[in-house]
């Protein structure tokens, strides 16, 4: 009996010690004993965690150079100026607020109603049916006037040509959907051959077509930028450096969705037709070592 009590005491002490270490780790620090001396070891958490949770606060050294403005680059913008919010200056990432209207969003969703299957009770059962949580469909400008109107709006707001841009891709996500690190710039031989007439993917315009309360952030880990989905807002960024090479800093991820559903749309703009609008600057190339 005494041996059993001693064993129980040893187990309790061990569990208590483990719990104390776990608590210290959760607080971002742990005590390390080395030769009888204790020191505090700071533990760096995965950069994805704070960004995906929406709790990351950028330092003033970064935010002090960011600003918002009304863009009036053309005659149309004088009547209806764009509300632009810079999230990163170099590389450039910005938000266009109130870019897509509710009626346009409803029309885009209706155009894909025959393609998108939403989970829910089926006719022959009360149990929910779970389809693939990531579904897409593409829309050409000729499919509906609202698609053509969005393309023209992109050209006015960004100053870029969409003559060689890809078709609008509408994306429907259900709970649990996520996307690992991706770079929209072309990096495979298959895509290079497929878009040989259009060139590389110069820029991306990502539309948020629904509000999301939990999860679903679009994050740029290297830039420490997190974008919360907000209905009607569009995110814009360049995928290439000034030299025309793919910019690895623009790798982005989409955090796991914790809400029921999420609607987005993407327009990929190519270099062909934008040679004089977004100049390639060879002087920005790294100097060769002699």
TrEMBL record:
<dbReference type="GO" id="GO:0005783">
    <property type="term" value="C:endoplasmic reticulum"/>
</dbReference>
<keyword id="KW-0408">Iron</keyword>
<keyword id="KW-0223">Dioxygenase</keyword>
<dbReference type="GO" id="GO:0031418">
    <property type="term" value="F:L-ascorbic acid binding"/>
</dbReference>
<feature type="signal peptide">
    <location>
        <begin position="1"/>
        <end position="20"/>
    </location>
</feature>
<dbReference type="GO" id="GO:0005506">
    <property type="term" value="F:iron ion binding"/>
</dbReference>
<keyword id="KW-0732">Signal</keyword>
<keyword id="KW-0560">Oxidoreductase</keyword>
<dbReference type="GO" id="GO:0004656">
    <property type="term" value="F:procollagen-proline 4-dioxygenase activity"/>
</dbReference>
<dbReference type="InterPro" id="IPR006620">
    <property type="entry name" value="Pro_4_hyd_alph"/>
</dbReference>
<protein>
    <recommendedName>
        <fullName>Prolyl 4-hydroxylase alpha subunit domain-containing protein</fullName>
    </recommendedName>
</protein>
<keyword id="KW-0479">Metal-binding</keyword>
<dbReference type="InterPro" id="IPR045054">
    <property type="entry name" value="P4HA-like"/>
</dbReference>
<keyword id="KW-0847">Vitamin C</keyword>
<feature type="domain" description="Prolyl 4-hydroxylase alpha subunit">
    <location>
        <begin position="91"/>
        <end position="270"/>
    </location>
</feature>
């Amino acid at each position: 009996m005494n041996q059993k009590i001693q064993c129980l005491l040893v187990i309790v002490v061990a569990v208590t010690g483990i719990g104390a270490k776990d608590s210290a780790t959760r607080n971002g620090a742990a005590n390390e004993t080395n030769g009888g001396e204790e020191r505090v070891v700071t533990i760096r958490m995965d950069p994805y965690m704070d960004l995906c949770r929406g709790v990351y606060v950028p330092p003033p050294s970064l935010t002090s150079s960011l600003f918002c403005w009304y863009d009036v680059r053309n005659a149309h913008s004088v009547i209806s100026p764009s509300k632009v919010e810079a999230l990163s200056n170099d590389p450039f990432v910005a938000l266009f607020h109130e870019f897509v209207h509710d009626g346009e969003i409803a029309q885009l969703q209706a155009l894909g109603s025959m393609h998108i299957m939403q989970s829910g009770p089926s006719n022959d059962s009360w149990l929910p049916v779970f389809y693939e949580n990531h579904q897409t469909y593409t829309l050409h400008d000729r499919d509906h006037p609202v698609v053509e109107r969005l393309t023209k709006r992109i050209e006015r707001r960004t100053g870029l040509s969409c003559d060689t841009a890809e078709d609008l891709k509408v994306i429907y996500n259900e709970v649990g959907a996520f996307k690992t690190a991706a770079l929209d710039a072309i990096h495979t031989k298959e895509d290079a051959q497929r878009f040989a007439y259009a060139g590389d993917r110069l820029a991306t315009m990502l539309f948020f077509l629904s509000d999301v309360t939990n999860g679903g952030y679009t994050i740029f880990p290297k830039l420490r930028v997190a974008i919360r989905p907000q209905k009607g807002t569009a995110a814009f960024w360049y995928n290439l450096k000034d030299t025309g090479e793919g910019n690895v800093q623009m790798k982005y991820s989409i955090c796991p969705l914790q809400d029921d559903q999420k609607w987005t749309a993407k327009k990929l703009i190519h270099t062909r037709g934008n040679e004089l609008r977004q100049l390639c600057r060879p002087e920005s190339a790294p100097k060769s070592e002699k």
